Amino acid sequence: MSAHDDLKSLIRTIPDFPKPGIQFRDITTLLLDPKGFAQTVERMAAATRGTVDLVAGIEARGFIFAAALAVPLKAGVLLIRKDGKLPGATIAEDYALEYGQDRIAIHEDALVPGARVLLVDDLIATGGTARAAVRLIRKAGGMVEQAQFLVDLPDLGGADALRKEDIAVDALLSFPGH
């Protein structure tokens, strides 16, 4: 029995979504449970190393965890958005998708150089978006040395890819497969 089995039991698995062979890990059922969501935030906050200035959330579900974690960590929230969603001057980073490219962005003035940033998202799979977010934060002058996720899909290698970039990676839960 794992230390976080209580949270794992709150996540619904939907087979064959969005395509056959994929086991979709639906966190909305955990978010609907007030105690489960509160425990998730408390445990993620407890896993944070040192002081952080900003909690960066990747659009869209990462925003939920970034905002909730920022409160107990006494940090600001940095929104990492899909390109074209932010008003004003931005900096952006491209990354590869299974079939093509995508781009994420932050405001040019979103952080001061040297800001300590905790990267947060709901799930890490291949790590493409998270790795692009790390590059983006570093391009803006931020220091990102740790990332937290509710769910890791270790068979897809994303957490290991982040670790190769000197990021300490924590996930409360792990599910096998895709």
UniProtKB/TrEMBL annotation:
Record EC number: 2.4.2.7
The organism's place on the tree of life at top rank: Bacteria
GO annotation, cellular component aspect: cytoplasm
Catalytic activity: AMP + diphosphate = 5-phospho-alpha-D-ribose 1-diphosphate + adenine
Function comment: Catalyzes a salvage reaction resulting in the formation of AMP, that is energically less costly than de novo synthesis.
One biological process term in Gene Ontology: purine ribonucleoside salvage
Source species: Sphingomonas yabuuchiae
Compartments, record wording: Cytoplasm
Residue runs in coiled coils: none
Enzyme class (EC, first level): transferase
Subunit structure: Homodimer.
Name the record gives this protein: Adenine phosphoribosyltransferase
Chief location: cytoplasm
